Amino acid sequence: MVTKTNSSLKECTPIIEVSELDFAYGSTQALFNVSMDIYEKQVTAFIGPSGCGKSTFLRCFNRMNDLIEVAHTKGGNIKINGVDINKPDVDVIELRKHVGMVFQKSNPFPKSIYDNIAYGLRIQGIKKKEILDQVVEECLRSAALWDEVKDRLQESALGMSGGQQQRLCIARALAVKPRILLMDEPCSALDPVATAKVEELIHELKKNYTIVIVTHNMQQAARVSDRTAFFYLGKLIEYDATDTIFMNPNNEQTEAYVSGRFG
Amino acid sequence: MTTKNKPHLFSYDLSVKRKTEGVIKWLFRIATYIVILAAGYLFANIIYNGSKAVFNVRAPFINIDFLTQKPQTLHVYEPKLIYAELKKINAQQVALRSELKGLSLMDDIGVASIKSKLKTLEQKYEELDAERKEGRLLFSDTEYRKLDQTPFSEEYTYSNYAYSGGGIGPAIIGTCLLVFGSIAIALTLGILCAIYLSEYSRPGRVLRIIRLSVLNLSGVPSIVFGLFGFGMFVLFFGWGVSMIAGWFTLAIMALPVVITASEESMRAIPKGFREGSLALGASKWTSIRTNVIPYALPGILTSSIMGIARVAGETAPIMFTAAFALRDQLPWEGLNEWTDFFFQGVMALPYHIYVVSSKIPQNEYTRDMQYGAAFVFLFIVGFFALSSIVLRARVRKKYKW
Amino acid sequence: MQRYFHEELEQIRSKLIRMSEKAREVGQLALEGFVECDLKKAERALVMDDEIDALEVEIDRDAVRYITLRGPVSSDVRLILVAIKASHDIERVGDEAHSIAKRTSSILRREGKVFQPVAIAEMGEIAFSMLGDAITAFIEGDLELARSIVHRDSEVNRLNRENYKTLSSELDGDLDNELGEASTQIKIIFISKSIERIADHAKNLAEEVIYLQTGDYYNS
Fold first, then answer.
1. Which residues are CB-contacts of B283 (< 8 A; sequence separation ≥ 6)?
2. Domains observed in chain A
3. Which among B33, B112, B132, B167 would be 20 to 30 A from B98, CA to CA?
4. How many Å is the maximal CA-CA distance in chain A?
5. Kindly report the CA angle at B258 between B255 and B259, in degrees rounded to 5?
6. Phi, psi dihedral angles at A14 (to 5 degrees)
7. Which residues pair with B270 in a beta bridge?
8. Which of C92, C89, C95, C116 is nearest to C33 (CA)?
9. Could you tell me what percent of chain A has a pLDDT over 70?
10. Is residue B40 domain-resident?
């Protein structure tokens, strides 16, 4: 059964192109020869059991792995917008402005809601109040938070609920106007209602952003993503339209994993 | 489950195990009480004895002279008659005591009679002593110089005691200066060092060795720091016995505490803050400046200030580097150049206590001095500790996570 | 909270409604072809069946996709289940209508008209009113209406039996009839049977509506 969505997906343009990426932590190799294209304005989900390298892979896209001393790329490359991001002339700060990230544990800074969102601009030296006000409102609106918090912008972000905090982190990431948004298990600490809200938000955001999401929750991958990649032991096992991965995967391991017969 | 007859499943089982448990609990309890008692006695003793020097019965209730004046020699005039009488009683007591030693233990009646005699003498002595205290005249140096004429020598016997008059003003000021200076130096150096160690350095053997040696530094005896400071700052740098040499000696001594505390506080900041700000395109220093230091600062300040306050109480490191036993001038008096301020020795409370307690003949007048100084010193150290706690509470309220 | 994928559920629902409306239309067209001896109507009915089959495949595919990707529970999963079952029933209605139309057109081709000896029209009326009511019950979630449909099935069955008796006794009596005549009557028996089947499917639909609404199976 060939789904219609499958064919329509093919028309999109790739924004991240990964070819033959090998990545290691010290002597332990974490990713083996991963090649994939991630397409613009789509939601791409990475699924797989713990330790399969999906988070590592995600963190390669904004070079968050640089923070780990022993982590290094052994081979292959990642091109974003056609630029190899591991080249020495790439400023990682500029890269991270274009590739935003939302973490597993919501990590709002212990400042006010307003300051949290303005942070990304302030560190760029933007101090003008009108601009900040405007961006804060814009970002909160696109994160569907504005109506909930507009009366308490100056209150601490830590007084918000878990789901609101995570959406605030998304809004904060949006403030620096990224093109790509990486999400590392954004809902793993949230209750179902908050999760649903974040998923709604992801669905809204994909109109304007390319989203890559790592998730342990297969249902979530099925619900929010257009494409799904299944990783196992550092290898990309299968990458296809979400419909195909969940309804009729080509690989037996994928089939076993999505149907819960794994291991 | 035991097979013993028990009223119900959860009733007490008075086995040996249970009893030992009770004993062990009491052991812990008693140990704790001993510690509390010791601490309580220490504080009570110092406060009780010290308050005699520090507080007054008359308004304003605080002995301002004691807190502000320089240490002086105490000039004492005691009523001659009473003084002679006391001396006589003292001689009698001595005679009786030696007689008591000479008697065999068998002679119960003799012992009892001598003991009762001694008792009556003691009572008499105390009465006279109280009278003497009432009648005596005490003058500090300044007061003594102002006197138009000395009291009649027919009525009074004169004696004087060094360090027992006046106050401890310069020592208080000196201590405060030493503490502030060393806090400034230790915090600056320590925080910079801690930032490098916890944020920038590569984890590995070298870092472990550095950490270990920093930790070991805190185990070095304070007298060794004193000698080091003396050799390094006083002699090698040629700063002489000076405040600045004291600052650096104290600061280096406090560094391990500051570095460890700062590193600890910085490591307690969730990784998410750093990652979150890095992911927004902040540089490493920006994210440390905006998202690590502000939140670590309360912890750093509290632990560091407490550590430094403790170090500042040490006598040994300043003994050779910064402290003068007696200095007439206050630190801001008689400076030729402003830089001289740093290169002058100061009086310091711990050293003053040391000097008063061990370098001069002990008598009833030095006692007040010692305890008074100890009391004030305790108060100052307590004030620093308290202010660091208050500071933390206030900063903490601002940044909570 | 309304999720973005609930729209897909709504789509499945409306597809189902569209499909059932279409099946009813085909059925009625076939019946009218028979009753009014209208060859054109019967032939139009023959073509329309394909759309229904296509819709069934689509609904099945959507339903499976919804189950795998959206993880529905409770009334949502019942709706999906009902969509799968009902689409099958409706597809059967379409098939029965198709066979009515086919037989009607073959009778009309040969004889030009249909003699209406039995209560086909009456049966058809009841059966299609059942079907129509079942669809209404589905759209409006009307439990009472759905329950009332179930009981009306017996009337159709009775009429079918009567038809069968009449036609088969006629067949027995008129052995000297031409062969064509006999085959026409057999065809009419089948048509009557088809209408009875349509009523059965309408009843099934009604039961599915009850299941959808209550989560319980209907037992009469």
1. A93
2. 14-258 (3.40.50.300)
3. B132
4. 56
5. 85
6. -75, 140
7. none
8. C116
9. 95
10. no
Q: Which of C1, C61, C69 sits opposite A196 (nearest CB)?
A: C1
Contact between chains at A3 and C65 (C-beta distance less than 8 A):
yes
C27, C128 Cβ separation under 8 angstroms: yes
> Is C220 domain-assigned?
no
- Note the pLDDT tens digit of each residue in C11-23: 999 999 999 999 9
Q: Which range marks the domain in which residue B351 is found?
A: 169-398
Contacts of A110 in chain B (CB under 8 A): 295, 399-401
Q: Is the dihedral of CA C202, C203, C208, C210 positive or negative?
A: positive
Q: Tell me the sheet residues that pair with B261.
A: none
The total number of structural domains that make up chain B: 2
Length of chain A: 263
DSSP strands (E only) in A122-162: none
Q: Which residues of A touch C67 (CB under 8 A)?
A: none
| Residue reference for tokens 């091109």 | A79
The arithmetic mean of pLDDT across residues B224-236, rounded, is: 89
* CB within 8 Å: B279 and A110: no
C3/A199 Cβ within 8 A: yes
pLDDT at A4: 41
Are residues A200 and C4 in contact, defined by beta-carbon separation less than 8 angstroms? yes
Burial (CB count <10 Å: 0-12, 13-18, 19+), residue C121: middle
CATH number, residue C194: 1.20.58.220
pLDDT of residue A262: 77
Long-range contacts made by residues C67-74, C-beta under 8 angstroms, separation at least 24?
C68/A222, C68/A246, C68/A247, C69/A222, C69/A223, C69/A242, C69/A243, C69/A246, C69/A247, C69/C5, C70/A222, C70/A223, C70/C5, C70/C8, C70/C9, C71/A219, C71/A222, C71/A223, C72/C9
List of chains touching A (3+ CB pairs within 8 A): B, C
Neighbours of C217 (CB within 10 A): 9
CATH (domain of B266): 1.10.3720.10
- Assess if residue C33 is contained within a domain: yes
Strand runs labelled E in chain C: none
Number of structural domains in chain C: 1
Tell if the CB–CB gap between A120 and B202 is shorter than 8 Å.
no
Angle between helices C179-214 and C74-111 (to 10 degrees): 170
- Judge whether B376 lies within some domain: yes
Last residue of a domain, one of B130, B151, B166: B166
Instruction: Show the domain range for C98.
Output: 6-214
In this structure, chain B runs to a length of 401
Q: What's the pLDDT at C150?
A: 87
Indicate whether B399 pLDDT > 70: no
> Who has greater pLDDT, B9 or A84?
A84
What are the tens digits of pLDDT across the range B304-340?
Answer: 877 877 787 788 888 888 777 777 777 777 677 777 7
